[in-house]
Amino acid sequence: MSTIRCTMAQAVVRYLCNQFTIIDDERAPLFPGVFAIFGHGNVTCLSEALEAAREVLPTWRGQNEQSMALAAIGFAKARRRRQIMVAATSIGPGALNMITAAGVAHANRLPILMISGDTFINRRPDPVMQQVEHFGDPTVNVNDAFKAVTRYWDRIVHPEQIISSLPQAVATLLDPADCGPAFLALPQDVQEIAWDYPAAFFEETVHAIPRPRPDRDRLAQALALLRAAKRPLIISGGGVRYSGAEDALGAFAADHGIPVAETIAGKGALTHDHPAHIGPIGIVGSTSANALAAEADVILAVGTRLMDFTTGSWTCFRQDAKFVSVNAARHDATKHRALAVVGDARETLAELDAGMAGWRADAAWTQKGRLEFARWNAMLDGFQKPTNDPVPTYAQVIGVVNAKADDRDLLITAAGGLPGEVMKNWRVKAPHTFDCEFGFSCMGYEIAAGWGAAMADPSRTPIVMVGDGSYMMMNSDIYSTVLSGHKLIVVVCDNGGYAVINRLQNAKGIASFNNLIRDCRVKEPFPVDFAGHAQAMGALTRKVESLADLGQALDWAKGNDRTTVISIVSDAFTWTPGDAWWDVGVPETSANPRVLEAAGAQQQGRRKQRVGV
């Protein structure tokens, strides 16, 4: 047997360099790059291996381990899970900084390969710097924390183990049903060991994403439910986009006259003006989609896990509504009394389409969807119309940004008030141009993900919309994009703090407290100069005062050769309506009568929830 002698770290890098994938019928690297911050757990062995392979597997230096991993996730999302970035850290705090990003990838079913240094297996130098010791179990260190937020986890305690572990990690990353973060802990002393690896282990491998077909009996049951439906509704989730099922979904809905509502992850599968599209559903949804959801008798949920923001905590639907859930993941399909049809979205829709030949929903129902959506669009026009108010609303700001965006520009946001506002106000011009991370609602995702998305597709410009709260949490990748030459346009909406949480706080009868800067324990509410701050990191910047100035600044930003940051003060108290009810905890007893009133209203809302879900 032919062998190649190299260190374990060198073998990991060599293996990754020889993995490929098929994108649009062309071969491409499965792992096109590495984000890395080196420390004593990975700088002497893994960095040596990466440096030698730098022309094949480029390494990008992050500013923060969490944000570089978020950039890797943004990359994977922009590539629709067809390519995967690696995030590599040292031990201790460097590794733990990635925990939040692992949660983002896990919640959103997105692939990222995380590699962290680890303590010494031989324990000769124990305890090493940055080692967190567990007195009763010396095998445990901080890397064990990743077990809760990864789909695949392994600690390589012998160089030969990567022969079985790496293929399993890759299989997890590519599995449409089990996709999520994979984590490898590489102990420092094992990284350095040379081993005679089989040459076959490093042979080029071309991977194709599997497309599982649905069970015939389940498909027949689904067809029976859909054909009997009087008021069918489709809910399009993120799985539609990852399957590449946008065209199939659009054609299926149009051919059979079934209105399509979209989840947060699913927005962007259809364009805003698609004839079957009726807008976003749920807590950050539209009046149009929520109106039809309240009447629908059969709901075809495609590629969605039906989280509470989609279902209005299960108050958006009739008690007797039937659900058919198409999902590659059995766990996600088998929820909420749904008929689980486990299979790839594109292939399952094709089989459903064939089985539904000649069938169309009642024309009055299809027309109702169009009329409700037309009313919703008229409302959006009103919300976005400029006024003489001194501070613009989110809807007005989004309207200007949306109008200035090119058809293929990618809108990115996450957390705070912006997700709800862009879900309602952003009108998608081309498929796959919308990324709102709300599965984990991670503050700090926005700018980092923009960096990853810019790497994923240099032919378009990511437009990052971020609140002042998220900007303050994580902004250092503005500097990363300036260094690497990946241009973003960043619009910072400054509403003086965590305004949407203040909104929720007030809605449940609680006084504004510790959310808006003015309501915190501060000497005085001091405004941040976001433009000045971003300029210090090398970005081109402009602070604007009006919607007209914002439009001009966006025109200027589009012509710039580097990341451009525009800041604008926005209204903290005006929100676009259309929301469904949301179940949150409200104190059952309080000295505040407004809280007691809110608690009573919350109990009333819970009476509308579907039973047994």
Tags for this entry?
3 domains, Rossmann fold, 6-stranded parallel beta sheet, 613 residues, alpha/beta, 37% helix, 23 strands, single chain
What does this structure look like?
The chain is an alpha/beta fold and 613 residues long. The protein folds into three domains: 3-207, Thiamin diphosphate (ThDP)-binding fold, Pyr/PP domains (Rossmann fold), CATH 3.40.50; 216-375, Rossmann fold (3-Layer(aba) Sandwich); 385-569, Thiamin diphosphate (ThDP)-binding fold, Pyr/PP domains (Rossmann fold, 3-Layer(aba) Sandwich), CATH 3.40.50. The chain has 24 helices and 23 strands. A six-stranded parallel beta sheet has the order 5-4-6-7-9-8, sandwiched between helices. Helix 12 (308-311) links the parallel strand 15 and strand 16. Helix 1 (8-17) packs parallel to helix 2 (46-52) and helix 16 packs across helix 17 (418-425). The longest helix is centred in the middle third of the chain and has 22 residues, at 363-384.
